[in-house]
Amino acid sequence: MTASPSRKVLDLMIGYWASQSVYVATKLGLPEHIESGLTTSRELAEATGSHERSLFQLMRFLTGLGILEGDDKTGFSLTPAGELLKEDAPDSLRDLTLMYGEEFYETWGKLLHNVKTGQPAFEAAFGAPMYPYFTANQESARRFDGTMAGGAFFRDLPRVFDFSSARTVVDIAGGTGALLSEVLKAAPHVKGVLFDQAHVIEAAKAAMADRGLTERVSYVEGDYTASLPTGGDVYLWSRILHSRSDESCVDLLKRCHDAMDPDGTVIVLERTIPPTGESSLGLWFDLQMMVLVGGTERSEQEYADLFAESGLALHAVLPLSLDMFAIVARRA
Question: What letter would DSSP give residue 297?
Fold first, then answer.
């Protein structure tokens, strides 16, 4: 049956109850404790220093959300979604859950201020723009890096884009190299260049060594707003342009146009704004970028326009997981 209008509004207004419940479970370390064999509310309350009845009610709610299954008689266990909340899980979403439940939760409380003034809500909530705030708060910065470090759509990229003719792939602001690693694993002949700031590169070197890719990657320290490595034939821009103005994007893409080989390719990984009336995570993250840094998601046509101003031409828009797209451009 179709939900009534009143039920639809109610579901929308109580949505944060679910997100905060998942956050609290993650903050308490319930996934790790359950994995270790503590499966009742009494055992878990003792391990986490929590009120037993309150914790039981939280866990019962989480079974309805599909994060846990079971009960206090049989013992609670993690569902596949709950497994993603563990710190050591492949594709772990623990850092994302903690950041969305703390810093970003507080940020969205300032949405009205953002809409009325145009000032990003993050600045209103924390007294500083997001990136300078992270520079001064290292645990928040670490969680943010963890939030950005991976995603199922990274594995999708080499499945939808043919890297067989590529020689050198440059990952701009590549973090610890999770995206570049997927490309290198799928295309053993390719060399990689990871471009990021010095403190990030140190972590990237360790991560690439763990992945057995040390010999295939070189590292360049720098700020993409000032310069880019030259000589690559594929340049990856993952979730960067949506944080910047149109003018800044054109400047960055022009710099990329000049840095890459004549037959080079630019691949932008972003969500897009769908045609009117269609639902998409792009619409959700458009507001997320607004409240965090005053950014925006864009339509395919808007990306085509940015490319045209930069001496590039839109070549393809390839769908990835989680409503992400690989937006491919080449020299015009």
Answer: -
